[in-house]
Amino acid sequence: MEVDSIMSKQSPNGDQPLEMKSTPLHSSERHASIISYKICNSKMSLTETEAGSVWRRMAEAEVRSLYFANLASRYNRQKQIITGISFFLSTSAAATLIAKLPPWVPVAFSVIVAIVTAYAMAVGLDRRIVTLTKLHYQWNQLSAEYEHLWNHWADPDANEALDELLKKARDASESATEMPYDEGLINKWAKLVYSRFQQPVATPVLSTTGR
Question: Which residue has better confidence, 100 or 19?
């Protein structure tokens, strides 16, 4: 039977044929399926609970951004000191100066240079500085995007935006697993950030990975 086709049938008493217009099969099921599809694929705003979670994640992202920036600065300063010592000891002026000192002094300087060089190689100083700088940028960007979402939590595409931000946060967390965790340092920045947002001073200890 085709939809919208016209059929003729004889009436029971042999009179004029009856004209009938067929209706689509399972129309109610098709209608329900279309409604379900539209609901599943429609854009949604955030609930109040989700909006509160966005605010919390915004603050935590800023804390992590400042924490990683602080660590990057610390390791960069160490690298500068190591480079400066190595460069000075390799100059002719240093050699002349050392030659006038007691015999044990050159040996001590050699040991110092060996130790600081080994330290730089052991911790992967250059690689660590690059990673920390990247983490600072990622969490700083996430904080700005969370803030934008928090100010637009009622937008129809807010739920989709939140899912995307959570994915970015997971990616940033993977890069932070090998980085050092300094509880005192991260609590220092947590207190600063939450005080700016007028939150209680006693803030919870945050993980640097965002998990």
Answer: 100
